[in-house]
Amino acid sequence: MSLDFTSSEMMSVTAARALNNDMTCFVGIGLPSEAANLARLTHAPDITLIYESGTLQTRPDVLPLSIGDGDLCESALTTVSVPEMFRYWLQGGHISVGFLGTAQIDRYANLNTTLIGDYRAPKVRLPGGGGAPEIATNAKEVFITLKHSKRTFVKDVDFLTTVGFGRDGKARDNLPNIGRGPTVVITDLCILKPDPESKELVVHQLHPGVTREDVINATGWEIRFADELGTTPAPTAEELEVLRNLKARTAAHHAGQH
Amino acid sequence: MAEFLSLREAVSRYINDGDTVAMEGFTHLIPFAAGHEVIRQKKRDLTLIRMTPDLVYDQMIGAGCAKKLIFSWGGNPGVGSLHRLRDALENEWPNSIEILEHSHAAMACAYDAGAAGLPFAVLRGYIGSDLPKVNDQIKFIECPFTGEQLAAVRSVRPDVAVIHAQRADRNGNVLIEGIIGIQKEVVLAAKRSIVTVEEVVDDLSAGVNACVLPSWAITAIAEAPKGASPSYALGYYERDNAFYKEWDGIARDRETFQAWMKANVFEKGAE
Question: Is the backbone of residue A20 left (phi > 0), alpha (psi -120 to 50) or beta?
Fold first, then answer.
């Protein structure tokens, strides 16, 4: 019998599976944090999670609302200052995976979290870069997770906040000290990976029940599919149970603090 | 030596119209009580610096205190936009504000350089980003030893630093615990500093490597219990995440915002 699950759950479970026990993961807030903690509570109990607030090797019981909730600090091995976090631990080369969310992504996996429209007269002002610009270049590789739609998957980002492979796919070429960049993008429809040569994102796996047309209709450029297109395994009962419990615990915790 | 003052007196004496003011606290220990006092005293034309503007700057911008904002992430964490900041940027309400934006790594380095008395900071940053195109405080330099291209950012040297901390002893030494963020750097980078604390105690009970700011490095200390709420102070109270979510609805609309400010800031005096 197959289990019932939502496309959001499919996305979180798939993103969690991208992580393993040996990784030191710099975790962005929101979807990446949900996936990283799901990984820690299922198949990767010893994964090292690091948040930009300086909390090293943290094991929160509920998902933090902010990057600096008290639970992150109290459950961490240690907490360092923000300059130390970015200079020694990130720039110093101790992070294997940077896990990021974004508002917009383009075909070369460049991220926009700054604004929609013109810089001096924005149509929609977004929060800005935060930790992402340097996480994306100083981590050894980058995982990205976001919901798939024509609004989020655009041919060229309005503003390039955080580099994937640049406007031409070549931004990382010939630089002496830079990570591999985005190696996987996980959405609620599919898994994409950059083409080894051109660096353009290509669909490698469709989630169960998702068609090529679904992805084409939700992507703002002529999306390509890998020759051997796979199907992502559905979530297991255990993955769904742990995820749902985590989210229920989180909702109760954040609602009950007034 | 730090002088113990009421919050009202500290803000009145050390924050002037037109000053560059950095009120820090990385999610934790955000100096809300001090921000509200700045709003009540109707300080104007401030250049506000903060890595994560958060609700405190949303309130100050909406109340018309700011002419410029220097920041690296301007959202309501885990919730969404800062609607007052957006209204200022998109519609110039209540006034237009200039912005200068960085990444977190660059701002952390800029504070660190400010504390170290240097004119700029160097980092391996901004590679491939459009941010250097819109921020003239970001340049690229060549390493004199390896030839590698690195980013340089102007250091942060505010007129006034404002932070919240757990406690001070009676001599004015201050202990900061938990997510210490950029608290030490901002105080040391600034010309003057105001530190609000949860309580004043006889003994700090600080461990040998604790984050302690000596009294002689601080200008003024004001006791402000719950002075970081709805942010939090580790060991005293938790982050009021429910309020952070509520703020989204309050700040979305100008009238709701003004009513909230009237009831919760203007009609409440400093402690």
Answer: beta
CA distance A51 to A28: 7
Q: Which residues in A lie closer than 8 A to residue B74 (C-beta atoms)?
A: 125, 127-128
Instruction: Give CA–CA dist B250/B240, Å, rounded.
Output: 15
Domains in chain B: how many in total?
2
Task: Please indicate whether, in this complex, the C-beta atoms of B129 and A163 are within 8 angstroms of each other.
Answer: yes
Pairing of strands A97-100, A24-27: parallel
Q: Please, what CATH class does the domain formed by A7-253 belong to?
A: alpha beta
- pLDDT per residue over B205-258, tens digit each? 999 999 999 999 999 999 999 999 999 999 999 999 999 999 999 999 999 999
Kindly list the catalytic residues of A: 52
Same domain, B112 and B182: no
Test the B interface: residue of A33, A81, A174, A177 with most B CBs within 10 Å: A81
Assign residue B92 the CATH number of its domain.
3.40.1080.10
Q: Are residues B69 and B43 in the same domain?
A: yes
Domain that holds residue B113: 104-154
Instruction: Determine, yes or no, domain membership for B271.
Output: no
**One-letter amino acid of A189:** L
- Is the pLDDT assigned to residue B1 strictly greater than 70? yes
Q: From chain A, pick out residues whose CB is under 8 angstroms from the CB of B105.
A: 86-87, 90-91, 131, 133-134
In this prediction the ipTM stands at 0.96
| Nearest chain A residue to B97, by CA | A120
Would you say residue B241 lies in a domain? yes
Residue with tokens 């640049």, as numbered in its chain: A166
CA distance A245 to chain B (A): 19
At which of B138, B154, B170 does a domain end?
B154
